Amino acid sequence: MNRAHQSLYSKIFLIGCTWIFAQFLIIIRLGYLQITLEEVLLAKSRHNFLRYETIASLRGNILDCSGKLIATNRPVVNIYWKGSGARSLTATHNELLKQLETITQAPLLEPTETITAAERKAQTILLVKDVNFELLSKIAELFSTHSSIVIKTDFIRFYPYDSLASHVLGYLGTHEHTWIGKTGLEKACEDLLQGKAGINQKILNSFGKHLEEKEIEEGLPGQDITLTLNLELQQIAESLFPEGKRGAFVLMNPQDGSILVALSRPDFNPNVFLEKMDLDAWRDMKEKKPFMNRIFNSTYPPGSIFKLITLSTALELGYIDQSTQTHCAGSVIAGERKFRCNNKDGHGTLSVARSIAKSCNVLFYKLAKKMDIDDLARYANSFGLGRITDSGFNESPGLIPTRKWKRAKTGERWYQGDTLSANIGQSYLLVTPIQIARMVGSIETGHLVTPRIVQSAPVKCEPLTIAPSTRNFLQETMMAVVQEGTAHVLNSLTDFTIRAKTSTAQTSALEKRDMGEEYLEHGWAAINFRYKNNPPLTLVIIVENAGGTRMPLMVAKTFMKSYKKVLDLEQKKRALNEPVNFSKPEITNSSVINLPLP
After folding, report:
1. Domain boundary among 205, 226, 247
2. pTM
3. 232-247: average pLDDT
4. What is d(CA 16, CA 385) in angstroms, rounded to the nearest whole number?
5. Out of 71-75, 227-231, 389-393, 581-585, which region has the weakest mean confidence (pLDDT)?
6. pLDDT 10s digits, 440-454
7. Coil, strand, or helix at residue 250?
8. Domain annotation covers residue 136
9. Where are the beta strands (DSSP E) in 33-171?
10. What number is the average pLDDT over the span 472-500?
11. Which of 186, 206, 226 is the last residue of a domain?
12. What is the CATH number of the domain that holds 550?
């Protein structure tokens, strides 16, 4: 075989090997695409003609303790344009759109270009939102035969009482075109309220035209949630709280922790977040700082209410007994500083109970010379101060200072003057209104209860670790506050058993009182009351910069009068039925107790 033939055969062999190798690569590539990348490519191919639309489920309702709606969904009638697949809008289409604008007296939500695109792709878009009944009647009459105009009923969240209990309810915001809870119970109970969204599958052609639509997953509505709030009592509290004032109002059953009224001011209307809000409106709202839940998050000096803790500590540790008497000359000297009583002329000789009733400071100044701040902190903690209540809401723990805390915070040691201020509820002390409600309620029941706002939440409490004789004496002193002391204005209420403690909590030096309202003292009223044989309730009101206790006391008195009317009316309505028996929860010696729901 000559060289020419050898060269030809070599070329043929090389070409054959190259062809075989190329075919091998093609086979490997096809196998990789069809086997290894099968799911990826199948998903991409389906994406070319399939679209999936999430259909929001009907959000669960929020109801008060008697089943009245306080957060629900209202039907909203919307007008849509349903495209037919035509290349452009016809003259008839344009006339329809003009008529629709004339009837609604407002521009359509989408411009003509967008409507034309929807027509070409056979898509459905929103034209008019939330049509009232009068407009709906005209539109239904004029466009009943036009397939391009579609009337559809959707649902939107609705708070029928606007800002009522807004900090408890919270508000909604959008996330990936879905409404979700942003604050309050709307956020905390999102999984229950949201339900399960449905899914629709749409088939499109290469031009984006909708060919077919079907439901592939059915949505499920959210669950309803029943609260312990009493709508009627909440409305009364909302109407009575001083206009333009900041503060909080809490009404709680100290036996089972159910919160009947929860008011925080300033408040907000959660309905406004369901529509687009312009930047100026948002800034104006934020300046008022309405989103702070003052019941659970705002901390205040407790003032004279804390004297109940000081008194408990002194009795338990034997610094005084119930018969101790103290002479008040108007002030006490400690070191180089004079600590004044609220009566600069002095109260004279007072018993322990009358020292509480008159809110005299001298007894507590004298006790500060004997007491240890860490003992005071320990008893304050046992009353639930300085720690969160585990209510389920975002809470501030407040502050109960100790020697160790001050050294770490300021680098200074604890001075006797600090104890004098702490003994009357000033110094570094900070508490939340819900902590005060829990503390005062425990004096009535003998246990610290976990506040609850959802009716199905378990009832939990822990025993109050003081002697029964001490707790009974605290009740007597609180009774004296009403009968002859700083809450005497409540003594005129008939058919009530009332125990109370008031407090004027300083926010700055007394010399600054005349410099403006922001320098005035906060006013507290903490009350345990029982109307006839009904269950006891704990009422705590704080009005910021009130300048004294008159404002919260007058709110409390008026509220209790209204409460009496509500209960009398309810009892008349129940007269024909079997009477309701309220049983007091049984307390055991366990550290945490689950009580039966009343």
Report:
1. 226
2. 0.81
3. 96
4. 90
5. 581-585
6. 999 999 999 999 999
7. strand
8. yes
9. 50-55, 62-63, 69-82, 124-128, 149-158
10. 96
11. 226
12. 3.40.710.10
